[in-house]
Write a structure and sequence with these properties.
9 helices; Rossmann fold; 260 residues; four-stranded antiparallel sheet; six-stranded mixed sheet
Length: 260
């Protein structure tokens, strides 16, 4: 039975709730395709967690379910103990999507301020926060420029800045460095590592296996809508006698693809 929306999930022993708790998540779409089936996932508060898998593995469905964009067929999801459908959960979540989905005709500053308002941040506080993030992401000289006038790399920075406007405790990054150059990738790594060091929990999906190995405390391998293995980069390398996560991925995911 799903918890009442808005009510924090009770924990045995009264400990602090995990940043994300997923139990029995399943999603079957109208065409009969089952993207996720009986998936369980727990991510601790303060973790830097990587989610790896091929296209179609269920990563997008999982993220969409957590963010209340996709309606699960079954299962429960909580964010810091709050049902994922609740206003409290939405305030605690920040999502930087892979697709650049910003309003093309608003200025950068307006995009950030409007997003903060959606999460209940007052205008004065939103303006201060927008200016702070514009400076952090080196977009302050473009504050009054419309989004469509930005380069692809600048748009990527904007999407990340927007996700941070309401100071989320759980930041979900869906392919945050897809299509960016090496310099910007390194810059994003530095910024995200700093956020995590400051206490923000990060859930990262990426096809850059080196990125996951470098940044993440723990990694889960997702295939066919289920988690087939998880652990720290070191423990996964040891388990599969592999030199790096790329080799682990090839042995776990590619082997399953061949077997199926």
């Amino acid at each position: 039975m799903s918890p009442t929306p808005g009510a924090p999930a009770a924990l045995p022993g009264g400990g602090s709730p995990p940043a994300l708790l997923v139990r029995g998540l399943s999603k079957t779409y109208r065409d009969g395709f089952t993207a996720v089936s009986g998936l369980d996932l727990e991510i601790a508060d303060g973790a830097f967690f990587g989610l790896l898998g091929p296209n179609g593995a269920g990563k997008t469905t999982l993220i969409g379910s957590v963010c209340n964009i996709v309606r699960p067929t079954a299962g429960t999801l909580t964010v810091f103990g709050h049902d994922h459908r609740s206003r409290e959960a939405r305030r605690l979540l920040g999502l930087a999507e892979q697709e650049i989905n910003v309003d093309r005709f608003l200025s950068i500053r307006q995009i950030l301020i409007y997003h903060a308002g959606y999460h209940g941040v007052g205008r004065r506080a939103a303006v201060r926060r927008a200016d702070e993030l514009l400076q952090l992401f080196r977009l302050d000289d473009k504050a009054d420029v419309r989004a469509y006038e930005l380069s692809g790399g600048m748009q990527r920075r904007l999407v990340l800045a927007r996700a941070l406007m309401h100071r989320p405790r759980l930041l979900i990054l869906d392919e945050p460095t897809a299509g960016v150059d090496v310099e910007l990738r390194s810059e994003i790594w530095r910024l995200v590592k700093g956020l995590n060091a400051g206490g923000t929990t990060v859930l990262l999906t990426t096809h850059y296996l080196e990125e996951a190995e470098t940044l993440c405390d723990e990694i889960a391998l997702l295939r066919g809508g289920r988690i087939v293995d998880r652990g720290s980069a070191a423990s996964l390398r040891d388990r599969y006698a592999a030199r790096d996560i790329s080799e682990v991925y090839n042995r776990v995911i590619t082997a399953e693809e061949v077997a199926s």
